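Budget justification note: compute hours in this period were largely spent on complex prediction jobs such as the one shown. Inputs:
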Amino acid sequence: MTNSPKTEPKKLPVSVSRENLMSINNSNYTMSHGNSSPDQRPLQETKSEERTCSSQNQQHDKNNFVERPVLAAASTEQPSGTTIANEPKLGSRNGNITPPFSPQIQQCPVTYFNATLNQGVYQQPALTGETPTYTLLPTQLPPVVTPPATEKPKRHQVKNACVNCQKACKKCDDGRPCKRCIKCEMTDTCKSSTRKERKKGIKRGPYKKKEKITANPNATASSSTNIPSTGVISTNGQDSYGTMPIPLLGMPGPYFMFPTVSSTAAPYVFLTGACIPPMVIKQEQNQQKSNNNNTEKKEETLSSKEKSPDHQSRSSSISSSSSQQYQQQLKSDTIDKNVGSKLTLLSQVCSDMLKKTDPSLFHSSQTIRKDLHIKPISMPSFTSTTQTDDNERATDRLQAAVTSHHADLRQEPLKDEIVRESSEDNSIRESNKNIRQETGSHPQYTYQTQFMQFQSANNNNNNNFSQYYSYQDHQRQQKHQPILQQESQNQQSSNYSYIIRPTLPILQPSNIQQEIPAQLSQYHNSFLSMIPPQNKQSLP
DNA sequence: TAGCTCGGACCCTCAAATTG
DNA sequence: AATTTGAGGGTCCGAGCTAA
Ligand SMILES: [Zn+2]
Ligand SMILES: [Zn+2]
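Corresponding output:
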């Protein structure tokens, strides 16, 4: 197995070096590092207000720490040679929650991946059958729905590209690993990118007023020629408010150590997996709101009829990801001779496997591998099986976090906690205690603030503290792993719970509230109260 | 000429503004 | 409260560039 990403020759039919698929779904995630790719976007300062997103992203990428995802209680095999030794140097590495303010942070290397791929290899979903939508603007006459013959079908895009595709600005898909990463042999780093939370409180200026539709179309047409008070007539009939300067709110984007929770929001469910790819979460959401007839879903269903068999199978597997269905698909004619389809299917199965809920998916994936002459993988661990399970675990973790917090405030030792041995640990622990005492909140918020200030002072745009924190958390877990193992060997029931991970994935399903145990809500609320108000929103 | 880069077109989401 | 608007924040196409 090699970790170095490959470039892909153009115009290659779907034939990938298949051996490397064996690395898919190895339940340990590892990352390859130090591979500089020509595909990386250069760091660019774009001053333009309107089209900053792309360059912003790239810039953000540049400065991001390489995140090491952790799958809790993941499999046993530690892939050698790709672990900590290869990690980027990040300043303090002792696995404690120490302030990461070393200047080295700025030099943190970023992993770039060789990542360009022939776009033609992928079948674009045929969307020609989709009904075009027309918006009735006040400046328009009542709609005359006559789509131009030359109208291009809508470009299909995934909700979340994987980090590799995102960096390369290339087409991604919903599978994890995605097709492109499979081809480029970057399966172990194929993770869904995280979306920034949208800023709130941005004033938008008045919208153009809704016109009353009169019976006389001429009257409508004439009255709809907007002459804004500014005297500027925009070309599309809109007012010029759109060009009003929008106040920038402090730092580049809000930063959330924990997801912001508004008081009116439905309770969240904390997933238990330490690093479940967002993609997986999304699928669960889809499953759970199957009876939720939002337009998006309908559109998806509609268009899936028009899609290629390949795509169709993927869509259906999202709505029902049973291994039998995968098996059936594998047997079906459409997929029989098509390597690409099988790869897609494998990608999908592997993606579902990451949920670690259905061991039979593993066998399905093995079947496909066998079919594709790919070396089989060893069976990963499968853990939680139900939503209830997840809720219970989440409750446990929240309880642990809250208990730990309150105990620390009272300067009481946690009797269940692992005794840290090194003096270094203890000194940090002491300092953490002090911070808790002073601020009344979790030390990480102080660190976060300091981190942001440091980054700001050094003109470093990376404000992704959570990735850093996550990494450290991982380090700590690594350190504690032997202790936990020892405990389990000695038949001791481990009472130790890690303080809730700052980057714990969160699921907010639309119609699952009733399934959330009251206890979880309770601890969740307590937990939220630990977050000082200034950290609930963006930092200054 | 194949592969890479990256500007910007295109797309979706969702908070603000507006309407009922 | 429900609906509409339109900007934020994203995806990824494809023209132009570069190296072999
Ligand atoms: Zn991808
Ligand atoms: Zn990928």
